[in-house]
From TrEMBL:
Pfam families: AAA, AAA_assoc_2, MgsA_C. Signal peptide: none annotated. One of its GO terms (molecular function) is ATP hydrolysis activity. It comes from Secundilactobacillus kimchicus JCM 15530. GO terms for biological process: DNA synthesis involved in DNA repair; DNA-templated DNA replication. SMART domains: AAA. This is Replication-associated recombination protein A. The lineage of its organism: Bacteria, Bacillati, Bacillota, Bacilli, Lactobacillales. Transmembrane segments: none annotated. Keywords: ATP-binding, Nucleotide-binding. Belongs to the AAA ATPase family. RarA/MGS1/WRNIP1 subfamily.
């Protein structure tokens, strides 16, 4: 079911949709090397295959960890003979210096169009020499609708799919299959194929796939369903809202549903967001303890990981709440995007170069550590917004009460006004 042209790619329409960047590259026949990064089964290899199919270039696939420099040399020789080869290099974050040095001149010449695939953040894990010669595109987990469409296509496709099989897939089973793999299409299709090939035909010669069969084949249990396939995301939403609303029992219930589904990734991500968005400055130590609980759960795995996760959920539920952090940064972002910025004051500008003083940069800057209590009043915001308040302290919890008092004292001292 691997797509042979861009129109067949499931999801990732921000890259391959009409008028989007990869689509434009292919139509203009101006391909450049790129790195695709994101979770497994979300379409990295499919996009590379579709680019090759749409451009009619030769397509080769290697693994940076297991294939050798000699394998790269074979691809380079083919590129010299045929003109251009699209090379999908899986696990590109594992590329060593010897292979990298061999590849670089071929990327420069354009004979090899490199499409690197990785689940690791390329800004952290990929060598700058490769990174600077590629465009970096993020791919995202597929939606249940994306996966449901791909399942329907696989069931109908007589050439590459299961179209010749007399399969009937129950609606509840289809819904579960489209949500249980957390956006991983490869796992969903593997589960579907295993179910189809391992289920005996009934008396009428049909293969009837039910929810228990699909659960068995993807090795996950259904924790809830609805006809639109939104149950998984509804549970995650209810999980966060229950913690935000300080309902410990409800939060533990939704945590249990996510644990039964084996979705440690969603639990970890959501808990960390909750800690900083909903508790935040009202109880900063809870944020650090939540991260520690997540790391412990990841080290332990499930089911033991349920213990630190439950501790974190209970603490976050019972902690005072404050969203002043997210509100402050979102207000500042809105100003910047609206053009409310202004010039950096001259005394704050970089003065680490010859001639800066002649421009007035860094002149009259007051170094706080030279003053009593390591603080001195001076203007930091641009003139245009010098009296702007972004942080609006809340009075929930001893930490933010203290932060708020200090913020107000400093603001009034900075502006030479009385509290």
């Amino acid at each position: 079911m691997r797509p042979q042209k861009l129109e067949d790619v499931v999801g990732q329409q921000h890259l391959v949709g009409d008028g989007k960047i990869i689509n434009r590259m292919v139509k203009a026949k101006m391909l450049s090397s790129m790195i695709l990064y994101g979770p497994p089964g979300t379409g990295k290899t499919s996009i590379a295959s579709a680019i090759a199919g749409s451009t009619k270039y030769a397509f080769r696939k290697l693994n940076a960890a297991t294939d050798s420099k000699k394998d790269l040399q074979v691809v380079a020789e083919e590129a010299k003979m045929s003109g251009t080869v699209i090379l999908l290099l899986d696990e590109i974050h594992r590329l060593d210096k010897t292979k990298q040095d061999f590849l670089l001149p071929h990327l420069e010449s354009g004979r090899i169009v490199l499409i690197g695939a990785t689940t690791e953040n390329p800004y952290i894990n990929i060598n700058p020499a490769i990174r600077s010669r590629t465009q970096i595109f993020e791919v995202y987990p597929l939606t249940p609708d994306d996966i449901k469409g791909a399942i329907d296509r696989a069931l109908a496709d007589r050439q590459n799919g299961l179209g010749d099989w007399p399969i009937s897939l129950d609606d509840t089973a289809a819904t579960f299959l489209s949500t249980a793999t957390n956006g991983d299409l490869r796992s969903a299709l593997n589960g579907l194929e295993l179910a189809a090939r391992s289920t005996e035909k009934d008396s009428e010669g049909h293969v009837h796939l039910t929810l228990p069969i699909i659960e068995e084949c993807v090795q996950k249990k259904a924790f809830s369903h609805d006809k639109d396939g939104d149950a998984h995301y509804d549970v995650i939403s209810a999980f966060q809202k229950s913690i935000r609303g300080s309902d410990t029992d409800a939060a533990l219930h939704y945590l249990a549903r996510l644990i039964v589904a084996g979705d440690l990734q969603s639990i970890a991500r959501r808990l960390l967001v909750i800690a900083y968005e909903d508790v935040g400055l009202a109880n900063p130590p809870a944020c650090a303890r939540t991260l520690a609980a997540i790391l412990s759960a990841e080290r332990l795995g499930l089911p033991e990981g349920r213990i630190p996760l439950a501790d974190a959920v209970i603490e976050l539920c019972l902690s005072p709440k404050s969203n002043s952090g997210i509100t402050a940064i979102d207000t500042a972002l809105a100003d910047v995007k609206a053009g409310k910025a202004g010039d950096v004051p001259n005394h704050l500008k970089d003065a680490h170069y010859k001639g800066a003083e002649k421009l007035g940069h860094g002149v009259d800057y007051k170094y706080p550590h030279n003053y009593e209590n390591d603080w001195v009043a001076q203007q930091y915001l641009p003139n245009k917004i010098k009296n702007t308040h972004y942080y609006q302290p809340k009075a929930n919890g001893k930490y933010e009460v203290a932060f708020g008092d200090q913020y107000r004292r400093l603001w009034h001292a900075q502006h030479n006004t009385a509290e």
